[in-house]
Amino acid sequence: MSVWAARRFWTQAAVVPAPGGFAIGLDARQVRTPRKAALILPSAALAEAVAAEWLAQGDRVDPATMPFTRTANSAIDTVTGQFDAIVQIVADYGGSDLLCYRAEGPEDLVVRQSDAWDPLLSWAAGSLGAPLRTTSGIVHVAQAPDSLAALRRLVERLTPFQLAAFHDLVSLSGSLILALALTRRHITVDEAWRRSRIDEDWQISQWGEDEEAAEVARRKHAAFLQADRFYGLCG
User: Fold this and answer.
1) Contacts of 70 (CB under 8 A, 6+ apart)
2) Cβ atoms of residues 164 and 74 within 8 Å
């Protein structure tokens, strides 16, 4: 059965114990990924969340309403087979982390960035063994190889399911350090999102909010919350 079946044919979506984890049974049939691999989830809690998405479908399956299923598919079909490449993509954010690039002015924005970001960089230096340099403006600042290596080792320790969600947390926020602080529960998801939006929120405070930009931000925020929840459900 393809995961993206056009029409609903099942009445029940149940979590079923399976070798290596938990499967999703749609009546008598087991859900598979788009590449026909068995959809095996690493924890019962994550499997329950995926099953709930299937149970909530109407007459036709709408992938847009199934973020946990999509991320699980990605973990199995993409991340598992390209693990090292995706680790590198994510780890590379450490070399150009949002928190390291500061405004030259005005003073209010400079202070907001410092108040929000300096504590996270101090935490990264002390708790992760990864001190990072900051700069003003957009000129690239090279980071110490030892720091980048330490950050990469942390990313390498993630499981494919964790990495699939972690990739979204990093790419949506622009910060590897912020995503690490969140997934290690040094900060809450609301704090993480707010600290990733310092520049945008300052612009809104100066010029008002654009309707189209607000809608884009809303979708990104929802995706950020979903990625954080998926990561937490991995077990």
Assistant:
1) 63
2) yes
